[in-house]
Design a protein that fits this description.
The chain has 336 residues and is mostly helical. Helix content is 68%, strand content 1%. A two-stranded antiparallel ribbon has the order 1-2. The chain is globular, with a radius of gyration of 25 Å. The C terminus is likely disordered.
């Protein structure tokens, strides 16, 4: 029987859900993401036996955290600290404030993430590119992609550039913008800087927009910051995405790849990618590469990454030349 110190956060959450009854648990489940529901359900099924004393301690901790979040949301940081210190003492108050503040970081613009992208567009389309960039950095990449495609063409580029170069936003800035856009929602206050935007996020967004939008953004952004464009492109199509290409496309790019690069790249890839590549090359070439792989020993991860990146570069070049297609949604639907 574990005590409260031995339980993980997800185990504590599972314990809370099991003690509030099926009806209340269902109410909670409706407000969780699919991933959270899956994780929570798994933990509930694996939950060890917990005695009544430990269960009470977990429920009490949960109550304290809920109370802390409520006081912070309604009264602000200073008021919450004052109330909690009087109720629990300075040390416990600081612990509660820290835990709740970190969890609240992810809840900024929550009303936006729950809304349809058209409603989101209506809210932010007349805002400055910097404000739009900040808001889109907090939403789902699917929402961001849809909104980006609807913005005026000139504003799209500015927004993408600002998201890519964004690293952090102060709680005060987030609070001010959130209050302006949605006054019904209380300000979400964080004592730390919240990481937003960045190259990976932009790459994820641009992977989901139509090809016309992507090309226009890259063409315009290239004149402003070519190195930024290259950084984004490196993240957009990774080596493992070869699995999404059709056989003709795989056969086409293989013809332009150095045999050594193929061998090194395959050695460092997973079995599915290797199988897809082998299935689309001549038997003699397959045997030659497999033989070369047998003699490859102590290959550095950096060498594998470089070989795979060179192959990705060839794929993107062939796509730009119209010799193969990296399937995307929207305007890129293909008729066989």
């Amino acid at each position: 029987m574990p005590d409260i110190e031995e339980l993980t956060s997800i185990q504590k959450a599972a314990l809370v859900v099991t003690t509030i009854g099926a009806e209340n648990a269902a109410f909670v489940y409706k407000r969780l993401s699919e991933d959270d529901v899956e994780r929570l359900t798994y933990e509930i099924s694996c939950l060890p036996y917990v005695d009544a004393t430990t269960a009470d301690e977990v429920l009490n901790e949960f109550y304290e955290l809920c109370l802390t979040q409520k006081v912070i949301t309604e009264g602000g940081i200073d008021y919450a600290r004052s109330v909690l210190e009087k109720a629990y003492g300075v040390e416990q108050a600081n612990k509660l404030m820290e835990r709740v503040s970190k969890s609240m970081q992810t809840k900024a613009f929550e009303f936006v993430r729950k809304s349809d992208y058209k409603n989101l567009l209506a809210i932010i389309q007349n805002e400055s590119p910097q404000t739009i960039a900040l808001v889109l950095s907090y939403v789902k990449s699917e929402q961001a992609s849809a909104v980006l495609q609807e913005l005026p063409r000139e504003k799209r580029v500015e927004v993408v550039e600002r998201i890519a170069k964004m690293e952090s936003a102060s709680p005060e800035t987030v609070k001010s913008i959130e209050d302006t856009l949605e006054r019904k929602f209380a300000a979400v206050i964080s004592m730390d800087l919240t990481t937003v935007g960045g190259i990976n996020f932009v790459a994820d967004v641009l992977n989901k927009v139509d090809r016309g939008t992507e090309k226009y953004i890259f063409d315009e952004l290239s004149s402003r910051d070519p190195s930024l464009v290259e950084e984004i492109k490196k993240k957009m199509f990774v080596f493992e995405d070869i699995l999404g290409l059709d056989s003709m496309s795989i056969q086409r790019f293989i013809r332009d790849v150095e045999t050594k690069d193929l061998a090194v790249a395959i050695k460092g890839s997973n079995a599915e990618v290797a199988a897809a590549l082998y299935a689309n090359m001549p038997q003699r070439m397959q045997e030659s590469i497999q033989q070369e792989i047998e003699y490859l020993h102590n290959i550095r991860i950096r060498d594998v990454d470089e070989a795979q990146q060179r192959i990705v570069g060839i794929i993107r070049h062939l796509e730009e030349e119209g010799e193969l297609v990296i399937g995307k949604g929207g305007e890129d639907e293909i008729i066989a």
